[in-house]
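In this section we walk through a basic example: taking a raw amino acid sequence and producing a predicted 3D structure, encoded as discrete structure tokens. The instruction is simple. Fold the sequence below.
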Amino acid sequence: MNELKQQRIWFCWRYELRKGEKAKVPKSATGTATGTSDDYKSTWVTYDEAAAGAEAHGMDGVGFKIPEEYFFLDLDHYELSDPYVQLMLERFDSYAERSVSGGGIHIYGKCDPARLPTHTDKAGKRKLDRAYYMKNPRNDTELYFGCITNRFAAYTGNAIKDVPLRECTDALLVTLDRDMRRKEGKKAVTCSAGSGPPAESGDAVRPIKLRHGADTINRIVARRLAAPALYIRS
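The resulting token sequence is shown next.
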């Protein structure tokens, strides 16, 4: 995390009640209002300055605006021993830590924004392709990219995997495809031939095997081979 700690992307946060629930509200290192919008950029500091400010002003923690070419993966309500967590820790060979509550896992790393499945909204802003969740309610997984989301990560330093931040674009594409899809059968609108997620062992047939018998599998595979345009939007 040292490469991020030197950047002026850090601030403090404090718990406040918002709509009857506790929320992590960003505060500057001097105790004033701040946020993740570039309008507040002048209030962001380095990690050491944010940590000192949090102690001086009785804040509940520190966090950082996710910068360009970095990502934040949040696995909520999971024990470290959960097979899903272990799969993600193996897939993402990058820094990982326990969440603030201790009941979740955070993974941080680097990515290539040009390879991510995105679209441009009416305001001209780059967004994650609509085929994918950023926050999947089915598996309590959240995935945020610095280039297309305006979020901050609450940093704890309670490391599970204390390694450098690694380039994880391939792992991100696999995770989007396997764990963050809104509806099976859709492909990212920005994926061109050969640019989709790298295959893991069993990827091509596992979703079908779980739901259909052998005859049905054969019919589905035959239809996919005969009419690929039904499964890939351009």
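Looking at the output, two observations stand out. The domain at 67-183 is CATH 3.30.2250 (Prim-pol fold). Residues 14 and 20 are 15 Å apart (CA to CA). In the next section we compare this with other chains.
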